[in-house]
Specification:
The protein is built from three helices and five strands. The protein is an alpha+beta fold and 131 residues long. Strands 1-3-4-5-2 form a five-stranded antiparallel β-sheet. A hairpin with a 2-residue loop joins strand 4 and strand 5.
């Protein structure tokens, strides 16, 4: 059952493949903002996955984060998420999110995810190929 206050946490080590100059988001050799966002999304999704009905999953619908400090390759990054709101219809989840490296805060903000039926969602996306 989904409840406000559910938390997620995940860690990774920044590798060369996660740097801005490797993923196409900039020219500098530091942890790329899109990769930080992906880490935040994965942590939020994972934090509620076991509380969803069978066949349901979440998809990201909104991300509002600041990336406030650069992180070099080789440093650990930790993502923390907390479910702070569940929409009255039960389908939109809002999270407070943050990312830290070994020296402190590198990103923070809010993130929303929608609960969807996985098969129906994927079928609708694939239908775009038919016309």
């Amino acid at each position: 059952m989904l409840t406000k206050g559910m938390k997620g946490q995940k860690e990774l080590v920044v590798t060369e493949d996660l740097l801005a100059n490797r993923v196409g988001s900039g020219l500098v050799a530091v942890y790329a903002t899109p990769m930080m966002i992906a880490g935040i999304e994965g942590t939020a999704a994972g934090s509620v996955a076991d509380a969803l009905e069978p066949g349901k999953t979440t998809v990201g619908t909104q991300m509002n984060v600041s990336h406030v400090a650069a992180t070099p390759a080789g440093m650990k990054v930790r993502f923390e998420t907390e479910l702070t709101d569940i929409a009255p219809n039960g389908k939109i989840l809002t999270f407070q999110v943050a990312a830290y490296d070994e020296k402190g805060l590198i990103g923070e903000g809010t993130h929303q995810r929608a609960i969807v039926d996985k098969e129906r969602f994927e079928a609708k996306a694939q239908a775009k190929l038919q016309g």
